[in-house]
Design a protein that fits this description.
The structure holds two protein chains of two kinds.
Chain A: E1 4-6, E2 11-14, E3 19-25, E4 32-38, E5 45-51, E6 54-58, E7 61-66, E8 71-76, E9 85-92, E10 101-102, E11 106-111
Parallel strand pairs in A: 2-11
Antiparallel strand pairs in A: 1-3, 3-8, 4-5, 4-9, 6-7, 7-8, 9-10, 9-11
Chain B: E1 5-7, E2 10-13, E3 19-24, E4 31-37, E5 43-50, E6 53-56, E7 65-68, E8 75-79, E9 88-95, E10 106-107, E11 111-115
Parallel strand pairs in B: 2-11
Antiparallel strand pairs in B: 1-3, 3-8, 4-5, 4-9, 5-6, 7-8, 9-10, 9-11
Classes of the chains: A mainly beta, B mainly beta.
Chain lengths: 112, 116
């Protein structure tokens, strides 16, 4: 079993829709949770960063962490064609290394 | 303020050759991480370095792969005697410290290695 599971999609939605992206994980030691956006042939770009459980909102993006269920979500409101990309969840338990464990990514296409 | 610079962007090597991938961290960042992204897979951690020190190489294959981050100059990921299975995108990230569980990480645009 992978430490982090993420549905690879693809997910296709019309412009303006609310998008929900999710990851589950098995390691209860994870404390830091991130969502990255990766455009084709580019490096990952940090979208949201959350420590421990709770919600965090930034513009059209909301990240939720439920440590009791080992489940994290990213919501995108009023989705735009420019949001079309691969979304990667990532987690870390911090410590001396800070290495990130990534999901496989969900490919999102927002249709105009 | 330049971001994380990786070069070359694309690298083609024949089986058995050596590949050298370079990463210059963001200004003020002294922590460098290398990740590999295989087709249809997420990024996998390879190695974490600080200046002149390898801190964690738990994700590095035991043979043919090595990494360094010298006092002067970029970090280098070196792959000797490349095989087709080494074809992947290699990403470097840097951060100003090792605190924060990933906050402050900035990724480069990657080097796409193709082994023919």
């Amino acid at each position: 079993q992978k430490e982090v599971e993420q549905d690879p999609g693809p997910l296709s939605v019309p412009e303006g829709a609310i998008v929900s992206l999710n990851c589950t994980y098995s390691n209860s030691a994870f404390q830091y949770f991130m969502w990255y956006r990766q455009y084709s042939r580019k490096g990952p770009e940090l979208l949201m960063y959350t420590y421990s459980s709770g919600n965090k909102e930034d513009g059209r993006f909301t990240a939720q962490v439920d440590k009791s269920s080992k489940y994290i979500s990213l919501f995108i409101r009023d989705s735009q064609p420019s949001d079309s990309a691969t979304y990667l969840c990532a987690m870390s338990h911090g410590g001396a290394t800070n290495k990130l464990i990534f999901g496989t990514g969900t490919l999102l296409a927002v249709q105009p | 303020n330049a971001g994380v610079m990786q070069n070359p962007r694309h690298l083609v090597r024949r089986r058995g050759q050596e590949a050298r991938l370079r990463c210059s961290p963001m200004k003020g960042h002294s922590h460098v991480y290398w990740y590999r992204q295989l087709p249809e897979e997420g990024l996998k951690f390879m190695v974490y370095l600080q200046k002149e020190n390898i801190i964690d190489e738990s994700g590095m294959p035991k043979e043919r792969f090595s990494a360094e981050f010298p006092k002067e100059g970029p970090s280098i990921l070196r792959i000797q005697q490349v095989v087709r299975g080494d074809s992947a995108a290699y990403f470097c990230a840097s951060s100003p410290s090792n605190g924060g569980g990933g906050d402050g990480y900035t990724f480069g645009s990657g080097t796409r290695l193709t082994v023919v």
